[in-house]
Amino acid sequence: MKFSSGKKIILTFGTRPEAIKMAPVYFALKKERNFSVKLVLTGQHTKMLADALKVFSMRPEYNLNIMTERQTLAQITAKAVRKLDEIYKAEKPSFVFVHGDTTSTLAAALAAFYNGIPSGHIEAGLRTNVKNEPYPEEMNRVLTDRICDLLFAPTPTAKRNLLSERIAASRILVTGNTIVDSIGMMKNKISRIEMKNFILLTMHRREAWGAPMEKIFRVLRKFATANGDLKIVYPVHPNPVVKSLAEKIFGGCRNIALIPPVNYLELLSLLRRADFVVTDSGGIQEEAVVFGKRVLLMRRVTERPEGVAAGFVKIVGLDGAKLERALRKCLKEQIKFGRIKRANPYGDGRAAERILGAVRKFFGLTAARIKEFGGIK
Asked: How much is the pTM?
C-alpha cells in the first residue's frame, strides 16, 4: 500500500489500553489531509486487543503477533524491536507515535530511534520513582521519555516530573489524558446494565503474584461473605497465575462473580454502575474517575497521584488489614454520599486536539492555538 501524499505517520502499540488511548489521536490524524496514517500492532495482547480495535473500528496494516507461551520480557522486547525495525525500514515513516509504559512502547521507541525516525510519547512523564513498582512499566516509561522527541504529558504533575529530569520544556506539552477523549467517543454506546450493589475488582500486577495476591483475595472473600447484599464482580485476567489463584480462593463464594475478561464497552458499563472499584490497574484509576467512582488502589505507590489528591483514589497497597478497613469505610461513604461530583483531574476531552496541533507545528504547519490542560485547581 502506497501513500499518495503527506507525511507518513505510524502509530505503534500492542495492548488493549494502548489501543483505547491511541484511538482519539488516530482519528484526529486520519482527518488531516497533510498526514497519512498506519497502525502497527505488536500483538502483545491478542483477544483483548482485538476487542478494542473492533469497538473503535480501527484496522491495522500490520500485526506482528509476537506473543508465544512463557516468553521472558527480554525475549518479547528483542522480538518486537527486530520486527519493528524491518517495518520502519520498509515504510520509512516521518514520525512514530507510542503510548504509555508497556514493553511494546519501549520497543517501538527504540526501533524508531535506531532508524533515525522522530517519535512522540503519549502519556509521558508519569512516575512512581520506584524502579520496580510497577514492574517493568516504570522503567519502560522513563526510558521511552528519554528517547522520544515530543512528550505529551497528560497533567501538569507529569510535566513537572519531566522538567525535574532536565528534559527541555520545548519537548513537552500538557494535553490531558486521551482516555477522557476515548470515553467521550464511546458515551452513547455504553449499555445501562441492571446490576447494582456491587464492587468492581481488577487485579493482575506481577509484583502481587503469589502470597501478596492470595492474602488480598482472602480479605476480599471475607468482606464479601460478611456483606451478603453486596457482590464483587471480577473480570479475571487471562494470565494463568492470576486465573488459577482466583478460582482457588473465590470458588464457591456465592456473591463473588468470576467472569471472563470483558470487552471495553462492558468494562465501562461495569464502571458506571459499580458502587466503587478495587484495583491495581493504572488505566482504571483514570476511567473510574470519569464516572465519579471511588477507587481503592492495591499498590504502594501510583504514577497517577492526581486522583489521590482530588479524593477519588485511596492507596491501600497489599496490606490486608488496611484494605479491610478501607473497604468498610468506602462502603459507608458510597451509601451516604454516592458518586463523587468533582472536576476530573486527568483531562478535559481535548487531548487529541492538542497532540494534533503539536505534530502540525513539528512539521512546520499552522496549528490552532489551544491552551495546555491545566489540571484542577
From this structure: 0.89
